[in-house]
């Protein structure tokens, strides 16, 4: 029972920490702007960068970078603590899923949130590091060439999935289901972007 309670505590913490809207907090605190009311209204780094750049370009880059790092760290920190505590691989993947759900459906924002890319990166980096690094390289290349944040992120995620199937098939739990679930959430949150991409209306990176 104690083991089950320990897992439950980690699950709750993963969701609550994952729910912290760092992009929103940073933009409000340092730029005095509510990014939920401007741009794409997303709480992610791309919208932080785009909205804050309108008034303070140098600050925008700093806040955008800080948002990416913090959104990723909130996925990694609870996993690293859980790993140190010695929980099972299945528990770690459940924590990862809940952290991404927290970011995308934050309890602090009425179950609204971001698109999960940075938080997904954070949890994948801990659990499937090699595929994640491959995905990061693909993302960086696509971002440089295509200059479309959403498309680059989705292509990077696709690269992670393919690399994980090749190098980590089963993910230590006998199934790729947790990775697919995280990926589905991220792709689902990007549906508006995908629609704009099809219509050739998606904005390029600023």
From TrEMBL:
GO terms for biological process: phospholipid biosynthetic process. GO terms for cellular component: plasma membrane. The keyword Metal-binding does not apply. It holds the Pfam family G3P_acyltransf. The chain crosses the membrane at residues 7-27, 63-85, 92-111, 117-141, 148-167. One of its GO terms (molecular function) is acyl-phosphate glycerol-3-phosphate acyltransferase activity. Keywords: Acyltransferase, Cell inner membrane, Cell membrane, Lipid biosynthesis, Lipid metabolism, Membrane, Phospholipid biosynthesis, Phospholipid metabolism, Transferase, Transmembrane, Transmembrane helix. Pathway: Lipid metabolism; phospholipid metabolism. Its EC number is 2.3.1.275. It is an enzyme of class 2 (transferase). Belongs to the PlsY family. This is Glycerol-3-phosphate acyltransferase.
């Amino acid at each position: 029972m104690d083991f089950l309670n320990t897992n439950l505590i980690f699950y709750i913490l993963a969701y609550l920490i994952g729910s912290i809207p760092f992009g929103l907090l940073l933009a409000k605190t340092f730029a005095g702007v509510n990014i939920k009311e401007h741009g794409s209204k997303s709480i992610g780094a791309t919208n932080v960068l785009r909205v804050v750049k309108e008034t303070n370009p140098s600050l925008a880059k700093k806040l955008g970078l800080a948002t990416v790092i913090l959104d990723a760290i909130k996925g990694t920190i609870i996993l690293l603590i859980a790993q140190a505590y010695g929980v099972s691989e299945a528990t770690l993947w459940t924590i990862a899923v809940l952290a991404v759900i927290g970011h995308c459906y934050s309890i602090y924002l009425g179950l609204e949130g971001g698109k999960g890319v940075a938080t997904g990166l954070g949890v994948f980096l801990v659990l499937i590091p090699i595929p994640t690094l491959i995905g990061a390289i693909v993302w960086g290349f696509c971002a440089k060439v295509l200059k479309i944040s959403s498309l680059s992120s989705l292509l990077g995620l696709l690269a992670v999935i393919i690399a994980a199937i090749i190098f980590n098939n089963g993910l230590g739990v006998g199934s790729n289901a947790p990775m697919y679930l995280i990926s589905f959430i991220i792709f689902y949150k990007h549906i508006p972007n995908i629609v704009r991409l099809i219509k050739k209306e998606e904005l390029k990176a600023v």
